Amino acid sequence: MISLFAWGQVCLTALHCDQTVAFGAELNTADLERSSDEGPASTPTAPRIPTLSELKTLGAERSAYLEPPKETLDQPVQRDSLAFANTIKPILNDACVDCHGPYGAEANFDITAIDPDLVEGGDAEWWEEVLAALNNGEMPPPDEVEMADEDRATVVEWLSNEIHYASNARRARDSNSSFRRLTKYEYNYALQDLLGEPWDFAKDLPPESVSEDGFQNSSDSLHLSVSQFETYRQLARRALDRVTVRGPKPEQVRWQHSMTDAAAIEEQIYHAKLKRLEKRFRDDAEKREQQLDNATRLYRSPGDGPYYLNTVTGEKARAKWEYNGALYAIEPVDSAETTKEEKAEPETARQETAEPETARQETAEQEVVAEQESTDVEAATSVSVPKVTAPTVTAPTVTAPTVTAPHVAVLPTGRKPYLTIELGNQVPDEGLMRVRVRASRGPDQERIPSMQLVFGWRATNEGRADVRVSKQDTQVTATAGQPDTYEWLIPLGEIDPRNAERKISTMGHFPSPSEYIRLVNSSVPKDADHPADIVIESVEVDAPIYQEWPPQSHTQIFPGDRLNDELTPEQEVDYAREILTSFMPRAWRSPVDSAAVDNKLALFQAMRGGSEDFQDAMLEVLATVLTSPKFLYFAPKPATSPAEQVSAATSVESSTSEKNLTSAGSTNRLLSGTDLATRLSLFLWCSVPDERLLELAAAGTLHQPAVLRAEVARMLEDPRHKRFVQHFVGQWLDLRALSYLAVDKSFTQFDSSLKEAMQQEPRAYFEELLQTNASVLDVIHADYAMVNERLAVHYGITGVEGNEFRRVSLNDEASRGGILTQAGLLAMNSDGEHSHPLKRGVWILKCVLNDPPPPPPAAVPEIDLADPEILKLTLKQRIEDHRNQPACMSCHQKIDPWGIAFENYDAIGQWRDEIKGMPVDASSALFNNQVLDGVDGLKRYLLDSRQDQFVHAMVEKLAIFALGRPLAFSDSATVDEVTRAVRKDGDGLKTLVQALVTSDLFLAP
């Protein structure tokens, strides 16, 4: 529902200024263009068309929210009824009843049947729709009964006043519940912050459903059945087991592998093959020489793939890998402290696996062909597993002295830009795996390449997985001949799936139990004059790494680590009480009385006799703490303590956005301090509050606007705020659709790296707006973008290198800049082969303007593509033909023009001027006859005439996410007040967040 009383004031402002313009539009783009074309004969000076950036300023200056706010007055019911009966009803009867009356209720709407009492009646949301239609010039339709400007202004003024007063009255009387369960991602982050490890504890939970507003954290859908409680108990116990330890520190194992060692393995396999070929063709000299030449050619000609380079002779050898027989596996040294000199010669390990029992028996001809085919199949069919969610810790680069190794591995960009290091079946299940790579750029190479780390395995032809475990790409900045050490720390328990055969099968046998890491050159391929090679000298892997033992996550639960002490039953009870007294308030996000602790203590004593030991019984009790509704649910309660009541009253009195609330407002209905801390942390961190928030809540000062603003600033500087960016942007823009996008093979430039960049771009852009407090109008258009090299190539932007996102300046043209024209959003609203104006139109109305179209009626006729006459039509003409059918007209007249404006973008968001040799026609007229001439006309119309609606929509979207519930009619006035504060203060995104958090909307239960 849309409720923006200020839109009516836009129309009134236009009237008072004696400007002859359409309602809801200060300047019609089509009229401007016609004025320019008429020339000096009719127009002495052709008006200059403002730029898009200028329109931002011009549109903002005309905002109705800059007008003085409405006064807070009591609203007698008698005044409402008389005003409606004497003034409003006659106007509506003349202009609306013919189409929306008892005998012609188009769109199932009868305006005579809705209750004009917005306070006590049940049709307030319908009146919001009427107001929106009048403000946007959609009703009455231009080709139907005309409504005089004076009559329209009268109805708009009455409706905006009634909505404002009725919303305040309902808010003082009613309450809107935010009671809900934590979402899957909130539950996961809460466990991460509580238990002190950045692991994915919730991966076994099903995905959340999505509300009508598009959000996953809505109270409407977050319920929990009794049977699901057992699932949460199991997840909690599993999480507690992972973050606590038993026994001595595990022994650390090290794998050391120089590229000289790797090249020696490849050389040995090559010579073994030559011997087999010589033996097989000893009686056919010509065939023997042919096969030997072929084998040598494949070995010495790496093509565009990775290769080993002899730094002395300059000889190259193709760097390949195959899983069968564990021919490429390296064995770890005895311990991490063993020096490289003490390590056994690599030939020892190779001798054990070079000729396994399953040695190939193919003919020599098949061996050579199979080798090439194996490489092609592996690249084409490798299964891609979703990335792990835990963050990867990348240590600073450690510069080392210049060393020239006998052999190095070179990873160019190309079809198979990776090097495989096989580690065998001894990689641990838990702990950190540290990977150190000595690497540099190629010689005379200006481009700085990027490197990723992948963990994978291949047990059989069908059973394989590659999991990217480096969350961010690492730039290889070291110059040629001066390698640096680049390091990753990877939580092994977060890699999923692992090779299930590693504890069953034997190394060298089938299926293979081995696992590997892959170093991937993730740089964007360019021509031969712009290489981005990575030169690798050596690789070192250590696991498991523990910075301390027992780890901090363990001692945080078991303070003092008294588990190994011989405790008497009485001492165990005392220790259990200590643990519970510390753990329960943090888990339940509020003070816990002694009765609650005693209850869990009794459970511990009941479980102790049947448990393995104290730790087992204690973890079982803590699992019940984490399965309690006090952890799983957010049930906001009003303030009860005197300190909170005083703080609450002070906050309302001093909050700028609340000065105009009714006297029956909510000084006695504000959120308790601990629940305010929880709401704030769920909003900005998607998790439970930290110690500082809880301390401020306990002190009764968190409600104060200055304190809240300071906490918002602090929280947005904390890395955890990226969770807010990740999940709000994904849900607001419905980015799930991009995850499932299947693109037609004709778009050869579309690959996984481009798709990944498309998914990251909206979030990177939103993060830039947030950190710089840029105007939310930059969502519509800006003269800059946030791109990496892959996206820059897609957009035709030069001078961008590397996979990290950065801000780049653009010209002020409409084709790029802002979120509307980002390739990923355009692509996900296509069908993967063609543009899809209907999907794009619905998306902008729903996600950007918060004005979703009604659902399609039943039995909508489909476009008959078997009709040869239909096939002759352009896409726009087909849509127009479909729209002209009576059952389709009402919806499509509102939707289609918004989507047609994007017709210059193909299915993957690239700009185009022609479609099958015909010029693109991206112009169309809205229901109010406003012409949208392509994306330029669309942006101009939004910036010129729909700014208030857009900013209001942004406030609504953020409020829905922040509150975890749908907005109700009673929230309308407060949403308007927040929008007013934001518009008056420059429309900054961070300003919006601050205004929302300090509003009555956020502070109320």
Summarize the structure.
By secondary structure, this protein is of the alpha+beta class. Strand 21 (923-925) and strand 22 (931-933) form a beta hairpin.
For the termini, the CA-CA separation is 22 Å
**Strand element count:** 22
Task: Outline the low-pLDDT stretches.
Answer: 1-40, 72-79, 336-403, 652-667
Class inferred from helices and paired strands = alpha+beta
Q: Tell me the radius of gyration.
A: 33 Å
Question: Care to describe what's here?
Answer:
The structure is a single chain. The chain has 35 helices and 22 strands. It is of the alpha+beta class. Strands 2, 3, 4, 6, 7, 9, 13 and 15 form an eight-stranded antiparallel β-sheet that branches. Strands 5, 8, 10, 11, 12 and 14 form a six-stranded mixed β-sheet that branches. A hairpin with a 2-residue loop joins β19 and β20. α10 packs parallel to α12 and α14 crosses α15. It is globular. The two termini are about 20 Å apart.
Label this structure with key terms.
alpha+beta, 6-stranded mixed sheet, 1005 residues, 8-stranded antiparallel sheet, disordered N terminus
Layout of helices and strands:
Blueprint lengths: L4 H12 L12 H10 L13 H10 L15 H19 L28 H12 L13 H25 L6 E2 L2 H12 L30 H18 L9 E6 H22 L4 H16 L6 E4 L5 E3 L27 H8 L10 H18 L2 E2 L12 E2 L7 E5 L6 E7 L7 E10 L8 E9 L5 E5 L5 E2 L8 E8 L23 E7 L12 E12 L6 H6 L11 H20 L5 H15 L5 H12 L3 H4 E2 L7 H13 L18 H12 L6 H9 L5 H13 L3 H12 L3 H4 L12 H21 L11 E4 L1 H7 L10 E4 L13 H6 L8 H12 L19 H5 L2 H9 L2 H15 L13 E2 L2 E2 L3 E3 L5 E3 H12 L1 H17 L8 H13 L4 H9 L2 H4 L2
Parallel strand pairs: 5-11
Antiparallel strand pairs: 1-16, 2-15, 3-4, 3-7, 6-13, 7-15, 8-14, 9-13, 9-15, 10-11, 10-12, 10-14, 17-18, 19-20, 21-22
